[in-house]
Fold this sequence. Notes:
- With 203 residues, the protein is an alpha/beta fold.
- 28% of the residues lie in helices and 24% in strands.
- The protein has helices at 15-18, 24-40, 61-70, 119-129, 187-201; strands spanning 6-8, 45-47, 75-84, 87-96, 99-104, 144-147, 150-156, 172-176.
- A five-stranded mixed sheet has the order 1-2-3-4-5, covered by helices on one side. Strands 6-7-8 form a three-stranded mixed sheet, with no helix packed on it.
- Strand 4 (87-96) and strand 5 form a beta hairpin.
Amino acid sequence: TLxxxxxxxNTDVAQRVRWDKSLRMKFTNxxxxxxxxxxxxxxxLIVLPESAFPLFMTNEPLLVDELKELSKKITIVxxxxxxxxKQIYNSAFLFQDGTLRRMDKKFLVPFGEEIPLxxxxxxxxxxxxxxxxxxxxxxxxxxxxxxxxxxIRNAICYEATREELYKGEFDVVVAITNNGWxxxxxxxxxxxxxxxxxxxxxx
Length: 203
């Protein structure tokens, strides 16, 4: 149990429309409305899912400024993409006390976000199956942050099922995910069981 109120947002957006550019502003405004509602309810933290903002947050200075301003009233964790040095990252963005911190994913989904094959084979697979798209870039380390003395480890979807994530000095894992890819299937159930097992094992 955390010593402050948390708003865990659970959205229901179909994958076929998630990245529709014409709906980007709609999804962004819905997220801002949920943040403002959480502020009105005096929540300390709001957590939005992986890719909740279907855009490159690093390319949206006006949105970043607005979220920084809102973070003076509530801490915000939200998923979005990042673009840096011609590389794409699957990231969580922490807005806290008027500042921004980007937390990139360390463990990428095999054959979803990266092709775990030698370079010459990666290019061929990406060209044939993914329209020439390149792999996501991954972080060197896990990202930790602190709220009111509680040490939190960030996780994005798949990496919450990796045992390596649970080793270290922190109090709780906050994992964001977008399991719309896998419904209906047993995948979300399996993921939940793995997370419960690892959380119990590592206290």
